[in-house]
């Protein structure tokens, strides 16, 4: 009994034991990052983002005790993809310029020691890890392609040692480089992979149309209006704050949830970079024994060890709707969890056994979605040889229809309402026309019907 209690206590403390025991076969991860909100403001009863605060948690899991790792923005984005802790210049959002981290020597916990914002080639990100394993990734940055004509439409970042022209919103262009973590690593920007994979958000709906074109890892950053950073938005672009967050999520999240990639082992995470950074609402709290080797104060303008309590919402076929996670996690936990799902090593502070990783407390439906019950109706059930007939097929789900037997071999897919009409002629033989409807979930459902073919 005592040994059993020790095992349970370890799993609760670190969160990683359950993760290693039974991780679901997640194939596509989508991360959406919003800006600068305390948990109580976002998820409280009076939240201006009801879709995020109420609707999405009812469809998946909410992690109330999810924490940012520092202030201000940039150090949190960097933590999410590399496990690197904050330093004074990343905490200042690269306001002093696009400068290399110096001296950049790798110290304990895989940390690049010193200060600066562009990490040396020796510092890897999860993007590098995925490429090495033959998996795919993309960063989708809203408005990145809307800069001046002379600036790049992909992998857009300041020139070396130059100031950042994206610190403030511009009319029609509210992209912020400091919210795009991939351009702060020489292991990415020094190679063609950056231009190929760090792209404008307009590419995302196109990639989402099929599993083959959807990356295994998608990191999504809305613009300065839609991520809630500005309130109100510049140039009359919107109300800003949580209201704009809510509008953007209501428009874009259903597109992800309806995608083939999400249905085939998807995981969606919506969180924030940091809590409020200063003033009466400033929150620099932390969890998970967070370390900070390169800064005297991870809270920057607010004294404290971290970036405050922000919360996170996760949706997946492997998460039971309405799940509430009591374990504490942070951005390093997020990185560690995704690395575990894809079988990758742990980078930077994600190496620590505490913060831990998402386990059975998050993935509360490890078996995935149950097989949908298919009901299929076909009219007419009797076909005549040589007579053109409209074969009307009705299924209670969108499904793939396969025809075999004397009707020949055809493959078609019903519309979103599960309807399909085929103009069909049985040319020669009598016999059985077999139809099979399948819908790919996490268990395959099949329904078979036969139509009888007779002579005229």
Strand order of the largest sheet: 7-6-8-1-9-10-2-11
Strand content: 15-25%
Sheet with the most strands, sense and barrel status:
8 strands, mixed
**Poorly predicted residue ranges:** 1-20
Summarize the amount of helix as a percent range.
Answer: 10-25%
- Name given to the CATH homologous superfamily of the largest domain: Alkaline Phosphatase, subunit A
CATH class designation of the largest domain: Alpha Beta
Structural class based on helices, strands and sheet pairing: alpha/beta
Give the terminus-to-terminus CA distance. Answer: 77 Å
Number of domains as seen in the coordinates: 2
- State mean pLDDT (0 to 100 scale): 88
CATH architecture label name of the largest domain: 3-Layer(aba) Sandwich
Kindly describe this structure.
The protein is α/β, with parallel strands linked by helices and 456 residues long. 22% of the residues lie in helices and 21% in strands. It has 13 helices and 20 strands. Strands 7-6-8-1-9-10-2-11 form an eight-stranded mixed sheet. A hairpin with a 5-residue loop joins β19 and β20. α5 (74-82) packs parallel to α13.
Structural topology:
Layout: H1 2-14, H2 16-21, E1 28-34, H3 39-43, H4 50-59, E2 61-63, E3 66-67, H5 74-82, H6 88-91, E4 102-106, E5 112-115, H7 126-132, E6 137-141, H8 186-189, H9 193-197, E7 198-200, H10 204-207, E8 217-221, H11 241-257, H12 260-263, E9 266-272, E10 312-315, E11 323-324, E12 329-330, H13 331-341, E13 376-379, E14 382-384, E15 389-395, E16 400-405, E17 410-413, E18 419-424, E19 431-439, E20 445-454
Parallel strand pairs: 1-8, 1-9, 2-11, 3-12, 6-7, 6-8, 14-20
Antiparallel strand pairs: 2-10, 4-5, 9-10, 13-15, 15-18, 16-17, 16-19, 19-20
Helix pairs in contact: 5-13
């Amino acid at each position: 009994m005592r040994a059993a209690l020790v095992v349970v206590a370890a799993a609760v403390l670190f969160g990683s034991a359950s993760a290693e025991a039974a991780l679901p076969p997640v194939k596509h991860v989508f991360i959406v990052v919003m800006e600068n909100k305390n948990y109580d403001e976002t998820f409280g009863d009076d939240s201006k983002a009801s879709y995020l605060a109420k609707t999405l948690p009812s469809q998946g899991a909410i992690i109330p005790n999810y924490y940012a790792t520092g202030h201000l923005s940039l150090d949190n984005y960097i933590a999410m993809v590399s496990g690197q802790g904050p330093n004074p210049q990343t905490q200042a959002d690269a306001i002093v310029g696009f400068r290399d981290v110096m001296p950049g020597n790798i110290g304990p916990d895989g940390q690049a020691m010193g200060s600066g914002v562009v990490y040396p080639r020796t510092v890897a990100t999860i993007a590098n890890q995925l490429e090495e394993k033959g998996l795919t990734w993309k960063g989708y940055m809203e408005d990145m392609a809307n800069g001046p004509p002379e600036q790049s439409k992909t992998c857009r970042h300041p020139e070396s040692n130059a100031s950042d022209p994206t610190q403030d919103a511009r009319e029609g262009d509210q992209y912020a480089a400091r919210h795009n973590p991939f351009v702060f690593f020489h292991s990415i920007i020094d190679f063609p992979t950056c231009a190929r994979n760090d792209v404008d958000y307009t590419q995302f709906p196109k990639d989402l149309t099929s599993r083959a074109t959807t990356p295994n890892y998608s990191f999504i950053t809305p613009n300065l209006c839609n991520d809630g950073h500005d309130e109100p938005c510049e140039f009359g672009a919107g109300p800003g704050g949580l209201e704009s967050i809510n509008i953007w999520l209501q428009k874009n999240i259903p597109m992800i949830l309806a995608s083939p990639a999400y249905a085939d082992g998807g995981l969606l995470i919506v969180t924030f970079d940091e809590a409020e950074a200063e003033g009466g609402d400033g929150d620099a709290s932390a969890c998970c024994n967070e370390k900070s080797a390169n800064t005297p104060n991870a809270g920057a303008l607010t004294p404290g060890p971290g970036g405050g309590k922000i919360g996170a919402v996760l949706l997946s076929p492997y998460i039971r709707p309405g799940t509430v996670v009591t374990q504490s996690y942070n951005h390093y936990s997020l990185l560690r969890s995704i690395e575990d799902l894809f079988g990758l090593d742990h980078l930077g502070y994600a190496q620590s056994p505490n913060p831990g990783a998402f386990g059975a407390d998050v993935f509360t439906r490890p078996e995935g979605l149950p097989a949908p019950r298919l009901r299929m109706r076909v009219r007419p059930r009797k076909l005549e040889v040589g007579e053109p007939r409209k074969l009307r097929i009705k299924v209670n789900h969108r499904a793939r229809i396969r025809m075999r037997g004397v009707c020949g071999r055809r493959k078609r897919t019903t519309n979103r309402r599960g309807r399909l009409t085929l103009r069909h002629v049985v040319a020669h033989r009598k016999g059985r026309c077999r139809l099979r409807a399948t819908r790919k979930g996490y268990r395959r459902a099949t329904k078979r019907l036969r139509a009888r073919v007779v002579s005229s």
